[in-house]
Amino acid sequence: xxxxxxxxxxxxxxxxxxxxxxxxxxxxxxxxxxxxxxxxxxxxxxxxxxxxxxxxxxxxxxxxxxxxxxxxxxxxxxxxxxxxxxxxxxxxxxxxxxxxxxxxxxxxxxxxxxxxxxxxxxxxxxxxxxxxxxxxxxxxxxxxxxxxxxxxxxxxxxxxxxxxxxxxxxxxxxxxxxxxxxxxxxxxxxxxxxxxxxxxxxxxxxxxxxxxxxxxxxxxxxxxxxxxxxxxxxxxxxxxxxxxxxxxxxxxxxxxxxxxxxxxxxxxxxxxxxxxxxxxxxxxxxxxxxxxxxxxx
Length: 297
Known about the structure:
single chain, HSP40/DNAj peptide-binding domain, four-stranded mixed β-sheet, 13 strands, elongated
């Protein structure tokens, strides 16, 4: 199994997209799920396709696999040509192989397994099929943790009392409502308080910016607020109310990988409720000039 190509295991090509990889895994996982397939090889096949999916579904691990092959993922890699501090898996603490890395989040031992950036295959099973693992893993205890919007976006270390002890849970940047974090013997379920300024859709942020009629018509530079602080952007002349301006890479950090979502600035044109006499005169003059044309814009 260790020498079998991961792409062949999933029945896909090396140019397969992320969606194609996920669909291929889902199909095979359903086919070899031991509760559905009572064949002698079903359990082994299920583990095989899960391991292939874990590598190919992560862009960074996929790139490493394409470059180094199975050698980077085998036991003992910490002492081999791919180990050590300078190797692509030097961060595995010398344990070798992504499926043997132990990660401590804090507290008394606080040991869990993050598989060197991989998901636990049993958790993927639960995402697809629901319920408990077919391999008899005991149900983990859950702990609910409330954090605010900014903490979810930027990450935070939270001191909590869990298991009768004061411990610190590290929340990675990018978590969202309902995210689960493994912490020792617990699954920490995150609840996020909504923000008054921003809305979140996946890893994208949506915020509103109110501008005057003159700014919308003539354009200009305005200051907006993002999750990273204030930023100046240019409003094009003739911008209509409801227009969304996209700021690439200014959204939320993705949990797997180094990319970020986008920030969308939704423009709202403010119409004044009260006008001075001078303003009324100018608008009448503007309207008179506009009537000479077939259209204002």
